[in-house]
Design brief:
The protein is an alpha/beta fold and 389 residues long. 44% of the residues lie in helices and 15% in strands. Helix 6 (149-157) links the parallel strand 6 and strand 7.
Amino acid sequence: MKIINVVGARPNFMKIGPLIDEMKKHIRIESILVHTEQHYDENMSRLFFDQLKLPEPDIYLGVGSGSHAQQTARIMLEFEKVLIKEKPDLVIVVGDVNSTIACALTASKLQIKIAHVEAGLRSFDRDMPEEINRMLTDCLSDYLFVTEKSGEINLLREGVEKNKIFFVGNVMIDTLLKHKERAKDSRILFDLGLESEDGLGPKEHKIKPFALVTLHRPGNVDVRDNFIGILESLEEIQKHLKIIYPMHPRTRGNIEKFRLSQRFSFLEGAESVSRDRGIVILNPLGYLDFIKLMSEARLVLTDSGGVQEETTALGVPCLTLRENTERPVTVSEGSNFIVGTKKDNIIKAALTAINSTGKKGRIPEKWDGFAAQRIVDILLNTNKEVRQT
């Protein structure tokens, strides 16, 4: 069985890794890894591949950045050449980036079967490009692997045949659980002055409390007024708790575009206002350093879907700076709150979390580290009992 696995952007690496590991165990599978290079930074890409122990991609498409239409078109043109040459039995796409829908559409036109990992997630907000990508990819797919029960409900409501839907768990959590122990060896806390070298005293006294922030959604960082409101909320929160903020490249570009660095001095990487307060701006981090920070954070503020899932698996309180989520199980069962993007609501929710133990929640069903095994078993038809309806 020849399978082409597609990655295109940083979040895809964590999702495809467990699948490739599992496929290596089966001599019946010939696995090919295609990197569209939708998002590509040599240092960060190489770091992620090394840390996640991913093999070197067999094929690079060299697509690069561009508008949604430009990226999708370029990927389709290049991926079609790969499919015609390789003639795979199956194409696996993950998540909801432009590479996901572009490769699924190309495979569909050539009548090649498609598996969508992370199917059925819905924010019900079509202003999000990712929502369009998810919906269209699901319409084209032959195997729809869902991470939570809401995904199955959404797909059935949309008319997807029940025998195409499989509740398998979350491959992102497979990766998290596999590398969680390795992340403990990260020195990022020492490097940021958040943990002392001597190791004296209980852990809770050795690590200084801090919040972790990630932002990248266009609605938050590409819209000037929305971005300013979030920055104002962070400016207030840092008076109560130190903030660590690894900044997305697009966000840095918007700071210059909107001329915000003078208004918010911390955006220039200014030193924290005191040892236990202030905001520290960092460049994007590798996977292990980021997991270490997330594991030890008192609070995480994010607009990332993946971070919502990871904080739920780690039991770390999470505030999602969006009006909705496509991952409702992180709210109903996990440690996530949806707080929106209004400054006052963000500040109120953050101060409530800081002054309490925070919401811990519980780990959702099948987020146990075996999602990739279930997926490969289904594809090989070796474990019919895995199928859930």
